[in-house]
Amino acid sequence: MWEKVDMFQGETAISIDDKGRLAIPTAFRDLVAGACNNRLVLTYNPYEPGCLWLYPESEWQKVRDQVIALPSAKKVYRSLQLKLVGAATFLEPDSSARILLPSSHRHAAGLEKRAVLVGMGVKLELWSEQAHLAQIRQSIVEDDVTDAMLDLRL
């Protein structure tokens, strides 16, 4: 079993071809092959527009089970279930380490030719270039800082 800590980290600018495929960056290929036997799950980021999430299958199963366990009678839970579980699709890299992104996911996230793949520990985030740039350019201001953040030694 793989360790969660520091599994995926770093960001890489990537291209998406005309068929909607992207090549998994070399830095992540061994992790994808070893951590999940080349099985990934793609779904929407329910919190930020312009971003999709890619989970190793084993990590996805934990997330899926938690989300499905929420009572669907509450509108916010139903929305989370729809965006995460309802939209989830399995992907396997081909022999060239490319994955095919469904057009529905690409269009919903505004992914075009250029994107950014970001390693975030147990998952990868696939950002449209514009949405990623907007996120990076946002500053964390003093009013946003929480008590937990004050203890960080950055």
TrEMBL record:
Cellular compartments annotated: Cytoplasm, Nucleoid
Keyword DNA-binding attributed: yes
SUPFAM superfamilies per UniProt: AbrB/MazE/MraZ-like
Native organism: Arenimonas maotaiensis
Alphabetically ordered keywords of this record: Cytoplasm, DNA-binding, Repeat, Transcription, Transcription regulation
Subunit text: Forms oligomers.
Name of protein: Transcriptional regulator MraZ
Source taxon at top rank: Bacteria
Gene Ontology cellular-component annotations: cytoplasm; nucleoid
Domain SpoVT-AbrB per the UniProt entry, residue ranges: 11-59, 88-131
Family: Belongs to the MraZ family.
Gene name of this polypeptide: mraZ
Molecular function via GO: DNA-binding transcription factor activity; transcription cis-regulatory region binding
GO annotation terms (biological process): negative regulation of DNA-templated transcription initiation
Gene3D superfamilies reported for this sequence: Transcriptional regulator MraZ domain (3.40.1550.20)
